[in-house]
Amino acid sequence: MALFGLAGPRSEVDRLTGIKILWSLGASTLWVLLVWGFWRSGPDALGLNAFLYMAAMASLFVWSLHRQGVEVRSCLFWLIPWGLTALSFLVYYNPFLKMTSLLVLLVSSAIFYNYSLLAVRRSLQWTPSLVIRLTGRGLSFLFFIWKSIRLHGQFVSLRGAGRNSTLWRVIIGVVILVALALFIVLPLLSSADPTFASSVRSITDWFTELISSSPFRRALFGALLSVLTLAALLAWNSPSEMQEGKEKPIDSIVVGIVLGGVLALYLLFLGIQFQKLWVGRLPFEFADAVYFVKSGFWQLLLLSVLNVAIYILAYRRTVSVVQKILAVFTVASLLLLCSAAWRMGLYVIYYGFSYEKFFAVYTVIYCAILFVWLVSRLFVNRRSDVIKFMVVLFIWMYALLTLLPVEQFILRTNVALSQLQDSHVRLAELTMLSPDVLDQVREYQKEDKLKEVNMERFFLSSPTNDPTLLERDMNYAAEGWDRWIERQEDVISSKAWYETNVMDWLMVSDRN
Q: What residue ranges carry the coiled-coil annotation (predicted)?
């Protein structure tokens, strides 16, 4: 009995595969109809449309997990943060986070979907080899693209038109003929004879116009997206011969020497640099302040990454004495992190928040939580899954970050900091923010809180202050905010209804 208009017993498309193809085609159609503006406007066009597409895709993969015997409840630890991150597309405009979120959602889906399938019948410890295996399975969809194309071809073929039917062979022959004629034969013949080229130009122009037309490109991309979606399902649902290996002990003497030596360097650094590390103010010159902060912050943060790698290497794989050294080493790593956090804190107080500084602070918080947890694991008898905790902590903290009013926080904090006596905050730099803060900017503009207080203060304290220059710069700053408001209003009004988000709806309701 043919199903979904498929061929008889020769077809590889069973009932479940047919459902997956239909679901993939439906989700892809949703993308090309609602999310197509992404190619023109980038993340500005992602709102309700992106959330609907992600919800459709999540439903497909969760259903597939269930069909593979995985209890959905056991996947909530990663499905919930995944869903919160997808929900942020519906809530906020923030284009900076949206582009990062697309990558986080894609990578976390591949890793955790495959982990859930591999761990369905046995408990797996997250080891470096497992991470490599999960990465390999995540990329294995590339080897299933041709199979996905073949299944799509069988699915959309007419009833009884199997791979060996006359109709199917005619279709394949015509496709091959058109491809050869357009891309090989006609270009070569046209280059050999200009008269022939002018004769067939109308044909080639018609095909070129067809290929470049929006409906054709949408249909082609929708088909490609559906093929890739099914290829991922086929690859990730394929059987695996995963064998969990036990981590072997490593040489305690070598690790002890390395840990002890690095720890001694850290303690020496903390001791000698104590007064410089815990400074109470930053240099007044902007270039000096940037050098002071960034020359220490990013180096110390990079050392934190190295310290985590050393911890994973030595954890529960050496003798007790080395484990105690590891505990002290981790505490010293936390102190280095605190030093970096103190530098960044001073930088923020004097120069205000930006995207970079906000996410740097958030990264420090993540590392601090991780180091405190790592220290606690050394006083617990059972072995903890360090890598899994790191990954799960990251996706949860990132999901919560996407739902935080980041731009509101940056705007409000910088306006408050600009009122401090020694502040170097420049409010005009906040015009890089998105329409998420449009209402707040309007309110501050009415209350005259976006006035460049520091600009006036530094002009008056300068020995060569010029009232004319001050007035010019103040007027320019005020006009900058007026232009920013107009630009954001144009962005919101130019959106299609399916590209809007909750913040857009709130701003429209407030204006009405």
A: none
